[in-house]
Design goal:
Elements (H helix, E strand, L loop, with lengths): L2 H10 L3 H23 L2 H18 L9 H22 L25 H18 L4 H12 L4 H8 L3 H21 L12
Amino acid sequence: MNEDSLLIEMAIGGGVDAFNQLMKTWYKRIFNFTFRYLASYDEASEITQQAFIKAYQSIGKLKDPHKFKSWLYIIASNECRAFSRKKARHPVSSINDTYLSQTEPWQRHRATDNPERGLVQQQQKDLLSKALSKIPEEQRIVIIMKEYEGFTFHEIAQILSLSENTIKSRMYYGLNTLRKILIKWNIDKEAIHYDS
C-alpha cells in the first residue's frame, strides 16, 4: 500500500491530519484544473477551497479508496460547473483578460536556461488558456481532463456521468473549435503543446 492509499484510508476513517496531507498533495493539481476551467486566478482559488471543503465533508462516504482521484475531480468539476451556471445567471462586470498576467501560477516561475525561450513558452500558454476559455464549457472540460489531467475517455465519462461516445464527440468538436480559434489568431497549433 503506497503512502497516498494509506492517507486515503485514514482520511475515510476520520483522520483530519491525513486529509490535510492529501490536500497538500492534491491542491496544486485541483487548482490548475479549476484555473484552466474558469480562467481566473481568484475564482479558481475560491472554487478549489470549496471543492476541498466538500471533499472533507463527504470523504467518509467514499467506498473505494482507489477511486479517490476521480471522486475528487467529480467534486471539483461539479463546483466549477455550478459556479459557471451561477455566474451566467448573475454576470459581474470585470476586466476578463486580466487572468493572462497570472496564467499557470504554479509554473510561472519555473527556472529555465533560456529566459527568452521561457517567455515565448509562457506567452504560448497564455494564448492557449485564453483560447480554451472561448470554447463551449462542455467541450473545454473534456479537453482539460484528457490533455492536461491525463484521464482516459472511460474515466472522463464516469466523472461527468456521460457516455464515452459523448465524451469523444465533445473532444473532437472542442479540438476543432480550438484549432479554428488558433488559426484565426494566426497561431501555429504545433507551437503550442497541450502539456502541463
